[in-house]
Each structure stands twice: as C-alpha cells, then as structure tokens.
Amino acid sequence: MSLKKNKTINKKAVFAAGLAAVLLTAACIYLFTVFFADDSNDEGKIELYYINNITGVLEAESRRTELPENREEAVRTVFNEYVNGSANSNLSLADPELKNFTSLTYPVDGNESIAKINFTDSFNKLSASKQLLCISGMVYTLTGLDYLRNVYFYVNDEPLVNMNGEAVERYNRNNVAINPSLDPEKTDRQLVVLYFTNAGQNKLMPEERSIEIKQSRTTEYQIVEQLIQGPLDSSLVPTVSSDVKIRDIKTEGDICYVNLSSEFMTKNNVTPAEETMTIYSIVNSLTELDTVTKVQFLIEGEKLTEYKGHLDFSKTFERDTSLIYEGKK
Q: Using an 8 Å Cβ cutoff, are 142 and 151 in contact?
C-alpha cells in the first residue's frame, strides 16, 4: 500500500473519531438538559428560609415537594413543610415551637391571594430579633409561590404591630428584609414593688425588686410577668399560678387593663381569702405606679361578671392598703 493511501485512510479515521466524539458530547449535553436543566424550573421545588445556627442569618433550603394543583392546598403544603423544620442540623426555625402555636388560612381578597397566619401569645415571648426573623422567614418562604404576594400576621386574632406599636396591614418582600438587622434592645433598670403573701396567705407582703424594663414591653406588663414568676424570698408565697399567660396589658387613662389567659380562673387558689390575695397582689403591685389607679381584669379578652363567684369582675379594682402587712415578717 502506498504512503499516500495510508495517509488518506488515517485522515478518514481521525475524522470519524472526531465526529463520534462530537456526537457523544452532544448526546451528553442533551441528556443533561433533559434530566437536570429543567430542575431549576421544577414547580415542585420550593425554597424554605431557616436560621443558620452558625451565622445567625436566614438561609434558603431547597426542597423538592409535589405541590397540589389547588392553590390553597399548595400554600398549606409549603407552610407545613416549613414549620416541620429542616433536616439540616445547622438550620432551624426562629422558634422550635412554631408549629404548635400557628394556624394558617388562605382567603382570596378580591383578585388577591393572601395568606393569614395567626400566632398565639407565645409569639410575644420571642425576642424582638427572633420575631423579625420569624416573620421574614415565613414571608420569603410563602411568597416563593408566584401567585402569593402578601402575608398577614395576627396574634390572638389581633393584627401584628411593629416596634412602634403600629399595626402593619400586610407583609411582603418589599417591606420585609431577608435578614433584618436590629440593634440590641435598650433596657433600663427600675425598682418596683411586688406583692406576694405570707405563709398564712392572709396578708400581702411587699418585695422590692430591680428589674430590666425592655422598650418592647410596658412596665405594667413586666410587673405582672414578675408576679407570675413568683417571689425571690423563699418565705413568701406566690399569688399567681405559673400556668397563667399574659394576653395583653395596656393602660388607658388611669385604668390598667390586664388581659389574662383562662388558666387564671382555673389554676389559682380556691378559697375566698386566697382569691382576694391573688387579685390584690396584682392590683396593689400595679398601683405602685403613678400612672395607674385602677385595674380592670379581662379573661381571654372578655370582661367577666365575677371571679369564681366571690369578686365582681365587671368593675375596676382600686388599691387596698388594708391588706398589706405592716409589721415584720
């Protein structure tokens, strides 16, 4: 065989090998496109925003989930996926108990699809920074659905308020930061007088306490909070059950409205004398403040007619100094 003919055969072989390589590459690209490229546009892929426990900021976790065609069911699916938490130990919810105290509704307001999330009072126990991260995480998670733009938040059916005490109508990606920054909450120390009872539970015993007054809570709120925590002096007896939760406390004029959970009616003492101590431990503690002269009790937001059949709960209570023990303990 001539040298010229060998060269011709070699050129054909090289060309054939090159063509085969090109076709193989094209086939690989096609297969990659078919199996992987569309994954980023997969409707079943959702982004869930959790707190990175190392950095302290929100981080998106991608998750493949089959979403129902029905929009309301799809929103609930995403919501449930989110509150069930992350499988990544480095990612967590703003509060691990989130799924235990939230509920979701998905109404359609005119042409707008919205999500409404109602927290219980447990939300108020989160720090201000955790509250912001909780809201941001849920907003960015739910609005990842292209038909959902706004999320409404409530606490015990009342619109959630911002740090200035103003109700915010709706939350979305335009008014919620993905990673909100919050300066450390300023606190001031204040000397307050709390009233517990003696061992016989027939007299109120004052206990002075220096507490940090947070700007996000009223002084009245924190006084009742301290009463629920109980006395520091072991010789004194608590007057309010630790199971009682504060729904809301606010002062209008000179009247302090104390809204407590139903446990206030069921978990506290049962004798008339003990009930009197319970009520006036709160009243006398609050009326130590110059701004409060009367206290109106509410249970789960409702004004009751009586407290266990002995005290008239429909009226306001004023300070009663005759119940305060004047001698030594």
A: yes
Quick one: 195 and 276 in the same domain? yes
In a domain, 249, yes or no: yes
- 241/46 Cα distance (integer angstroms): 44
| pTM score, whole prediction | 0.46
At 195 the three-state DSSP class reads: strand
* Token reading at 59: 């981080």
Bridge partners, 188 (sequence order): 213
* Model pLDDT for residues 199-217, shown as the tens digit of each residue: 888 899 999 988 877 766 7
In a domain, 111, yes or no: yes
Q: Which domain holds residue 310?
A: 187-323
Same domain? For 197 and 93 the reply is no
Task: Say if residue 284 is in the same domain as residue 238.
Answer: yes
pLDDT, tens digit, 9 for 90 and up, residues 152-192: 988 888 888 766 667 777 888 878 877 765 555 555 778 89
